[in-house]
Amino acid sequence: MKLNKYMVCGLLATSLTVGMTSCSSDFLDEELTTKYSTDYFNTEEGLEALTVSLYGNIRWHFGYEWAYGITLYGTDEFTSGNDLTSDAWNEYDSRFGPSIQGTNRNCPQPQNLWDEVYYGIASCNTIIDKANIIKDEEVRNRCLAHAYFLRGYNYYRLTAQYGGVALQLTPTTGVVRNFTRASEQDCWNQVIEDLRKAYNLFKGEDFTYGKGITWTKATAAHFLAKALLFRASERCDYFNSATKDADLREAIEACNYAIGARKLSPNYSNLYADWNGVDCATEQQDEILMEAGFNNSSSTIGRFGNRTYNYFCPQFSNFSNGWVRRGYWIGDMDFQRCRPTEYTYAIYDHVNDARLWKTFKTVFGVNNVADKGASGVQLGDPGIVMILNTKDDHTYDGYKFGANKQEPTFKDDAGRLPEWKDGQRQTPTSGELTSTKGQWIPNSSVLYQNGVYVAPTFMTPGYKYSNFFAGINKTADGTRQAEKGDSFRDVIMARLGETYLMRAECYARLGDFASAKKDIDVIRARAQWKSGENRSYYVDGTQAFANNALNTGAAATNYINSNLWMNTYYLSNPNQPVTTDASNLTNWTWDNLPPEDEAVMAKLGVSGQKERAIQFILNERTRELIGEWQRWETLSRTKTLVPRAKAFNTEAAPNVQERHLYRPIPQSFIDGLKNEDGSDLTDEQKKAWQNEGY
Questions:
Q1: Is residue 191 classed as helix, strand or coil in its secondary structure?
Q2: Phi-psi sector, 605: left (phi>0), alpha (psi -120 to 50), beta
Q3: E-strand stretches of 58-103
Q4: How far apart are CA 369 and CA 652, in angstroms?
Q5: Alpha carbon distance 81, 73 (integer Å)
Q6: How confident is the model at residue 422 (pLDDT cuts 50, 70, 90)?
């Protein structure tokens, strides 16, 4: 097991004594087990321990509702499900401001990110300030590389969200309540300076603290390129004219290093769907540049365990009297926070892009026979089937869909499901699919009927929210020890797939469209179906339950009945013959983009090769990076948040404005500020701290 995963919780708490005072005392009481004083950080051993503890600071991002609220909501990709815990972040309505009155107490607040990243910055400042006491140059440089990297990363997150913030670059003692707000330009300059230092200090791909979750030169290169691209993008156009081209070229060079030092995983399934247990090979892939590390040791859980498995699943346990019960044997909880938009489903090539079918869960098995009557439904039959058809498909125009207990859904030959026999489930090598005519599915849906997007209407027609949708599987975890227990899988925060797309965007912005296409096609070629792949096979992190000590008795039966390892590829593409041939996603040009992309260009009114290229890359980022905790930031950076949210997010469309390219500065922070003489800030001074429009 990797050393730092065991060490971070106890060591991280010690850094609280030298940093900001924003974290609550209960966290101190809960975590401070090492009993070190700040004098410990005046020793070589203490600074090395503090360096290892930096890995713990990033785990916070995935502990609660802020994981998706500040990163995915209010964009083109996701909208609210029927649970409205964080819907203020999605709808940009009157509740969204420096303090948020959420639907319930779990709604993220603007200060959540602000407080936690400054906590990590304080630890970094201590290491940077005291590094000279470390006599061994190699150890000293390693500690400095980590400190500059996390400080740069944390200021990246702050500046991307809030614009100009307080730049605190030296250790503080006691309670400091007098800060100056730096400009956004100065903040990006500092982010880039820190990440450059980290990039230069890291010694190649030296996995000092354990491969898989260790920051290396490639990690720093990725985020250096990311920061340079941000400064060269549209949100910074009001100050970046003198640095834009140089930033893009430097970003390309940083990407070149990462791409040369690491390699892509061969199959998209390797990244997320194939996860099969704590610290498995999936978490050690060369493509992964940064992870938040979790495992099943109680010493690593702390206050912020991994809760991301809660947020992407439909409310399956509430469909038709509970044909599918929830439990730890199902890899997700059905908290129905993040519902994909029509754009998200439509932006894929449903026939040729394997990422759609390796990412979205479309079938749940019956693990509870709710209807003891004449339905004929048995344990292990398909209980929830979500057909991801396309707008031009009219196969299901006359069908009645929804969560129906009484009326069979498939009445004739138009419905097609895998052949189903007692004791048999589909496997990767099962091959042919045949029709099961007249099979009743208790809960079923399509995306389109009569060319109209009807997916949100199945549960309550006319109600704008829905709990019935196909969610993504990138967080599914079958190793949980309780229904609502923490997830034990790592969370990927950066990987090489994005590095290729960043380099492609840099090339496109410089007018080198041929090089941009080459990089995009590397990613699209991996996304193609491989020769011999069964297109109707599906797997996700639920499979880890097979190795879970709880996999006995009724739990084992429910695991088998619930997870059928199939998707609705052939139901969703009813005219597609059964095949195991390879597909092709690279047959496109800048003047003739794939149809799904041309539809987006038309919807947004995009013209000009550069603008079309950037929008196409944004679409490709959806297909490649859906749900990977960065969409809001990307749309803010490119100033496409408003047009895309208005075009594709029904709930966000009425209220989203240009001011929403920045988050509100937390009111709790502003109210706590003092002038140098100890006096309170005037209303005018407070207004100067706040972003425009809040």
A1: helix
A2: left
A3: 78-80
A4: 39
A5: 11
A6: very low
| Interacting residues of 554 by C-beta distance below 8 A, sequence separation 6+ | none
> What is the reported pTM?
0.92
Token couple for 640: 């496409």
Query: Do the beta carbons of residue 478 and residue 545 sit within 8 Å?
Result: yes
Dihedral pair phi/psi, residue 445, rounded to 5°: -155, 160
Would you say 641 and 632 are in contact if contact means Cβ atoms under 8 Å apart? yes
* Cα angle for residues 325, 326, 327 (degrees, 5° grid): 125
Task: Output the pLDDT for position 37.
Answer: 66
Section 65-72 average pLDDT: 97
The rounded Cα 473 to chain-centroid distance in angstroms is 11
pLDDT at 33: 33
First to last CA, the chain: 47
Could you tell me if residue 163 is left (phi over 0), alpha (psi between -120 and 50 degrees) or otherwise beta?
A: left
Separation of alpha carbons 82 and 623, rounded Å: 24
List, as one string, the DSSP characters of 603-627: HHT--SHHHHHHHHHHHHHHHHHTT
- In this structure, the number of other CB atoms found within 10 A of the CB of residue 32 comes to 15
pLDDT above 90 for 592: yes
Beta-sheet pairing, 382-387 with 443-446: parallel
6-62: pLDDT as tens digits: 223 323 333 322 233 333 322 222 233 344 567 899 999 999 999 999 999 999 999
Over residues 550-561, mean pLDDT: 96
Contact in structure between 651 and 545 (CB atoms under 8 Å): no
DSSP at 381: S
Q: What is the pLDDT of residues 288-298, one digit of tens each?
A: 999 999 998 87
Please tell me the predicted confidence (pLDDT) of residue 149: 98
CA-angle at 544, arms to 540 and 546, nearest 5°:
120
Residues in contact with 228: Cβ distance below 8 Å, sequence separation at least 6, in sequence order? 192, 247, 248, 250, 251, 254
Mean pLDDT value across residues 679-694: 95
Q: 37-41, 212-216, 299-303, 652-656: lowest mean pLDDT where? A: 299-303
The structure tokens listed for 535 are: 């297109």
What is the distance between the alpha carbons of residues 301 and 292, in angstroms, rounded to a whole number?
Answer: 12
- Asked if residues 458 and 468 have their Cβ atoms less than 8 Å apart, the reply is yes
Q: Which residue has the higher pLDDT, 678 or 16?
A: 678
Distance CA 322, CA 367 (A): 9
Strand pairing report for 338-340 and 363-365: unpaired
Q: Measured between alpha carbons, how far is 665 from 164 in angstroms, rounded to an integer?
A: 10
The count of other CB atoms within 10 Å of the CB of residue 374 is 8
One-letter identity of residue 248: L
The span from the CA of 381 to the CA of 426, in Å, is: 12
pLDDT of residue 208: 67
Residue 364 phi, psi (nearest 5):
-120, 140
> What six digits make up the tokens of 618?
């944004």
Q: Determine the pLDDT at residue 28.
A: 23
Per-residue pLDDT reduced to its tens digit, 97-145: 999 988 889 999 999 999 999 999 999 999 999 999 999 999 999 999 9
d(CA 376, CA 395): 25
Query: What is residue 141's DSSP assignment?
Result: H
CA-CA distances (angstroms) from residue 28 to 15, 21, 34, 279, 349? 10, 11, 11, 28, 50
